[in-house]
Amino acid sequence: MAPFFLLIGFAFLYPLLSLLSISVTEPQTGLQNYERILDTPVYGKVLLRTLWIALLVSILSLFLAFPVAMAMVSSSGAMAVFITACILLPFWSSVLVRTAAWAVLLQRNGIVNDLLQAIGIIDAPVRLLYTQGAVVVAMTHVLMPFMVLPIYGALRNIPPDYGRAAAICGAGPLRSFFEVTLPLAMPGVLGGFILVFLTALGYFITPALLGSPQEMMIATLISQQLREFLDWPFAAALVGVLTLFVTAITLLFSRVFRFDRMLGGQV
User: Fold this and answer.
1) pLDDT of 96-123, one tens digit each?
2) Which residues of the chain have pLDDT under 70?
3) Which CATH class for the 38-262 domain?
4) For the whole prediction, is pTM greater than 0.90?
5) Could you give the CA distance from residue 93 to residue 77 in angstroms, rounded to a whole number?
6) Distance of alpha carbon 137 from its chain centroid, rounded?
7) How far apart are CA 181 and CA 31, in angstroms?
8) What is the pLDDT of residue 257?
9) Average pLDDT, whole number, for the chain?
């Protein structure tokens, strides 16, 4: 494991710690950069908006990913290969390409507006690009595979005899799902949820291309401070706040949602 830890230390920990040190040493020693975040309401709104969008994307990804994961487990042969290919195919193209595709679909003369007009929902093209909805939809599309794969792994490890035993005991399909399948799949659900949520917190490309300045997320704000204002200390403070939130949320999930507790093990 030594090469792995050396790589993590050199490529992640050292740059992060160096950046965070700038936030408390420049332009002067202290917490002035962090006080600026607290004293300016707009930065708090950006952080809350980022948390809301990340939560919304995670919930939508969960509701879309669970049926797909169940279909992967219950399918075989060509259908299983087809579903797996649909999940893995997006990894073969860059996030930039997938985001640009959504920009084409959501433009005023795009397919989505044309379809809505054709079925009579709208009379004229509406603004779909550069909105929070566009960001949420595109991020859900990009991040959903990271939800499907952990859930698929958890569902695949559930013995099929459990479902048959529940049916023998009189449980219908719905009750069997909520009392047998879902509890046993919770480790995969929570693993995928955490992975998508934490990734969405620091997402940059999709919000930068499909969002508007009024719907800015924290990663876009950090990029703006670095590229436009060249304010590295304040950008480092924003990174510190984001790192603090990510760490706190990870510790909260690991402490509250204990896998052994969900599976009926002893605490």
Assistant:
1) 888 888 998 988 888 888 888 888 888 8
2) 256-267
3) mainly alpha
4) no
5) 25
6) 11
7) 49
8) 63
9) 86
- What pLDDT shows up at residue 9? 86
> What is the structure's pLDDT at 187?
87
pLDDT for the residue 264: 40
- Write out the chain in H/E/C secondary structure: CHHHHHHHHHHHHHHHHHHHHHHHHCCCCCCHHHHHHHHCHHHHHHHHHHHHHHHHHHHHHHHHHHHHHHHHHHCCCHHHHHHHHHHHHHHHCCHHHHHHHHHHHHCCCCHHHHHHHHCCCCCCCCCCCCCHHHHHHHHHHHHHHHHHHHHHHHHHCCCHHHHHHHHHCCCCHHHHHHHHHHHHHHHHHHHHHHHHHHHHHCCCHHHHHHCCHHHCCHHHHHHHHHHCCCCHHHHHHHHHHHHHHHHHHHHHHHHHCCHHHHCCCCC
Domain locations in the chain as residue ranges: 38-262
**Rounded to whole angstroms, how far apart are CA atoms 201 and 219?**
8
